[in-house]
Please model this.
Amino acid sequence: MIENIDTSLIDWSRAQFALTAMYHWLFVPLTLGLGVIQAIMETIYYRTGNEAWKKTAQFWMKLFGINFAIGVATGLILEFEFGTNWSNYSWFVGDIFGAPLAIEGILAFFMEATFIAVMFFGWDKVSKRFHLASTWLTIIGATLSALWILIANAWMQYPVGMHFNPDTVRNEMFDFWAVALSPVAINKFFHTVLSGWIEGALFVLGISCWYLLKKRNTEFALSSIKVSAIFGLVASILIIWTGDGSAYQVAQKQPMKLAAMEGTTTTLRVYEDHVSLLREGTFLQEQEYRIGKSSKSTYQTLMGPLEVTVVTRSIEDSLTGGEGKVVLTYDVELKGLFNHLNEVVIEVREDPEYSWKSENN
Model:
């Protein structure tokens, strides 16, 4: 069957999906950030009664609406492309992958679709309090949409809560909460939302600064800059934490992906009396581990060359038929300082998805 598949069809399917995803990704994060900013502005109007803040919120709400419409259009196309372009994948993991997508549509999307009507057309038809609540519920709904979409995406990166059923030849979910509360999903959600907040802040800042340069509506521009600058600064600080968490999750859960991100390949060779670790890519490094002997490596840093000495204490391996574990215990000397009892456990498999665990004591 596979040999009869036209490979150009796969390439076209990838290209179509990638093009749709690129446009979807441009506008949806902007919607998340711009929506919170406009909700903050309307909150200020609700608390102060200043009509200038109402007009400011309404201006950004129009731009929010344009982005929202494009995000919905591209998102619906992506949903259909799972069936048209990747029908076998959808059938194979549909029991798992389809659940968060269904929850996103029934819960989050219906929520934002309901209250966005009040947000746009209810300014003088409902009370200020109800309109403000509708605005925030619209933004919360959009954010919840991102949550469930990212849960589905995170499951593809780190599949948990499932098992393969040989009777149906499909993957089936047995633990919904393991999928929904996956550490990869939670970190991915916060990191994505914060990046959307930053994008929204930069969008508002850019347009507001243009108004200042043209000396038009300066009061409106300055008010927008104050809100977006503070909002963007807070998001920029928080995203440092989520970015570090993202890299940590990739290193722990997807070591091969980390190697691809670094542009490196690692070759492990186990001999009778030593282990050789060769890394090739953006830099070339070969580390040799021999019991009781030291080896030196020099790294180029911003502060100049840095020499690191590794003293191997023990090597244990349980390799059988090319698979098993290699455990290295060693000391590291860095400018006269020692970090004792470093242990690296390398699981070697025929499958390229190996795991790497490091413990420092």
About this structure: The mean pLDDT is 84.
